[in-house]
Design brief:
The protein is mainly beta and about 130 residues long. It contains no helices and eleven strands. Strand 7 and strand 8 form a beta hairpin. It is globular, with a radius of gyration of 14 Å. The termini are far apart.
């Protein structure tokens, strides 16, 4: 089992920045591909960005490319999402997810592929 806990959400003015963290515990963090998803009321949970187990490969949703950056620190069992130039449409509950992998360079973008999820952290953007 893997436990994931998100933190760092809050209220930010449009154009501002936030950094979310996802702390993992339970199993070997370094054998897992990770990702961030987000969800607003009445909408599907959507992919934001993902990162591979090794090699630092990343993939992002078009809506956040150039503004959001995912990174991970395996020594701290933590993944990060740096969000810059925030827009009102970025407001959502952000979830981190993990998936045990054998391919160290694989990045996964589909919600159904992920095995473990955190409870989410709320991001609110005021205009």
């Amino acid at each position: 089992q893997v436990q994931l806990v998100e933190s760092g959400g809050g209220l930010v003015v449009a154009g501002g920045s936030l950094r979310l963290s996802c702390a993992a515990s339970g199993r070997t963090f370094s054998m897992y591909a990770m990702a961030w998803f987000r969800q607003t009321p009445h909408n599907e949970r959507e992919f934001v960005g993902g990162i591979s187990w090794r090699g630092g490969r990343t993939d992002y949703a078009d809506s956040v490319k150039g503004r959001f950056t995912i990174s991970r620190d395996d020594g701290k069992n933590t993944m990060y999402l740096q969000m810059n130039s925030l827009k009102s449409e970025d407001a959502a509950v952000y979830y981190c997810a993990s998936k045990r992998v054998t391919n160290p360079l694989a990045v996964f973008t589909e919600r159904i592929e992920y095995e473990y999820w955190g409870r989410g952290t709320q991001v609110t953007v005021s205009s």
